[in-house]
């Protein structure tokens, strides 16, 4: 193990179980609260041991210290940093379960929003996500916890050349649809079936112009009150679940 090899610490059963099951990062040591008597923690410890991960029983006070004040649910783990997947891996995962559905998150800066967006993306059945490359570094454990483990489970690529990444998606026969505050079809009029990359922007900058300009279509979520737009994580949830609804109810659609 130990501290020389561990790059960050996860807390919470769901985040740790997801890291163990996904296998996208190394898990070095699992700390579980001594005498807690929680069957879910016992199952987590058994899963860790089956993967040759060391399991330490520690006091509640030590877990509180390891968690640094965050809610831990009786467990913490020393892990490596979650490395991004390659774009080709995301596309391969999407092509394996047609029609492909990938979400591109652009201009997302807040790790809490990022975690919530990944949670919705996975919950709505998307096959993977792409995000503009940046160093999430220190915020990785927060993203893992807030996303409900989706950060580890969901194929996730970091695009260092965003335009080239989207052009590669188009080469793979995925339509590019950008969500805009206004303009284009409303999200319930837009056809979200078939092979698709859905672009959702962050709250400060939205989707970069260079990306909007190469998209095939645009859509928007109409606002009926005084609010001019939804928070980015809420917009992602609305749009992803509309895509899921259309795909479930009406079939694969264009290109499917």
How is this fold's topology laid out?
Blueprint: E1 8-11, H1 13-22, E2 27-33, H2 39-50, E3 54-58, H3 60-67, E4 75-79, H4 87-95, E5 101-106, H5 111-123, E6 128-132, H6 140-146, H7 150-153, E7 156-159, H8 162-171, E8 175-180, E9 185-186, E10 196-201, H9 209-212, E11 217-220, H10 232-250
Parallel strand pairs: 2-3, 5-6, 5-10, 6-7, 8-10, 8-11, 9-11
Antiparallel strand pairs: 1-4, 2-4
CATH superfamily of the largest domain: SPOUT methyltransferase, trefoil knot domain
Q: What is the CA-based Rg, rounded?
A: 20 Å
- Which sequence of strands runs across the widest sheet? 7-6-5-10-8-11-9
Q: From the coordinates shown, what is the CATH architecture of the largest domain?
A: 3-Layer(aba) Sandwich
How many structural domains? 2
Amount of beta strand: 15-25%
The name of the CATH topology of the largest domain is Alpha/beta knot
Order of helices and strands: EHEHEHEHEHEHHEHEEEHEH
